[in-house]
Amino acid sequence: MTPVFSHGDLRLYLLNLLDEGPRHGYDIMQALSDRTGGTYTPSAGTIYPRLAKLEEEGLVTKSVDGRKTVYSITDAGHAEVASRAGDLEGIEAGLADSVRLIADEVRGSVREAMRSLRADLAAATADQRAQAKQTVRDDDPRVFAREQLQRADAAVNEFRARVRSDLRTHVARGGELASSMVDDLTSELDRIARDVTRSLRG
Q1: Partners of residue 63 on adjacent β-strands
Q2: Which of 16-20, 109-113, 189-193 is predicted with the least confidence, judged by mean pLDDT?
Q3: Cβ atoms within 10 Å, residue 66
Q4: Of the candidates 177, 39, 19, 178, which has an alpha carbon nearest to the alpha carbon of residue 99?
Q5: What is the phi-psi region of residue 51: left when phi exceeds 0, alpha when psi lies from -120 to 50, beta otherwise?
Q6: pLDDT, tens digit, for every residue of 133-166?
Q7: Of 30, 52, 55, 117, which has the highest C-beta tally within 10 A?
Q8: Three-class secondary structure of residue 63 per DSSP
Q9: Quick one: pLDDT band at residue 14, thresholds 50, 70, 90?
Q10: What single DSSP character describes residue 60?
Q11: pLDDT band, residue 170 (cuts 50/70/90)
Q12: Which residues have CB under 8 Å from 74's CB, separation 6+?
């Protein structure tokens, strides 16, 4: 989920970043991505035209440092940031909400994957019990057991791949993982393991 910058919000947020100190273009883009938990990753085509506009307005200056162009805020830029402190608080609050929303989405994805795993394992267990009740079976029971084991393995591997992909993508995008969510995941997996063990012993 990408945070929505209303008209002028991105401009003000860029000034706010430069108010903290001079930055080059890539650093600005990386800071935006980091501070939004990876929910907003701007392109050069988005950032540089806005920096050029700020320069035209006399709010930003640029200088060349080796191969990098460094942008610095002017006194007029400092004054605008100071005068719009309330607007900045609103923008920061909106970005914080976006980070929380994407964390909730990841948590929901994990829970959905766990529900799917439980359903797959329950179906596999039910099939195994139904087959075990047959009085006559032409095939070797060991063959059937191996088939069901392969199904269970596939279900576990699919769950692992889905959750791992969701978590790695979230972290790669700069998102944070709450310890409570990891604790919930561990607890659910432990419970599922106990359920499977009880079913096999029953």
Answers
A1: 70
A2: 109-113
A3: 7
A4: 39
A5: alpha
A6: 554 455 567 777 788 888 888 888 888 888 887 7
A7: 117
A8: strand
A9: very high
A10: E
A11: confident
A12: 58, 59, 60, 61
User: Using CA atoms, how far apart are residues 22 and 30, in angstroms rounded to an integer?
Assistant: 14
SS (H, E, C) 130-196: HHHCCCCCCCCHHHHHHHHHHHHHHHHHHHHHHHHHHHHHHHHCCCCCCHHHHHHHHHHHHHHHHHH
| Residue carrying structure tokens 């909730």 | 104
Secondary structure of 36-52 in HEC code, one letter for each residue: CCCCCCCCHHHHHHHHH
**Kindly report the CA angle at 25 between 19 and 26, in degrees rounded to 5?**
115
Structure tokens at 98: 């976006």
The residue type of 46 is T
Tokens of 195: 């359920």
Residue 4 is which amino acid? Answer: V
Average pLDDT, rounded, for the chain? 80
Place of tokens 């540089």: 48
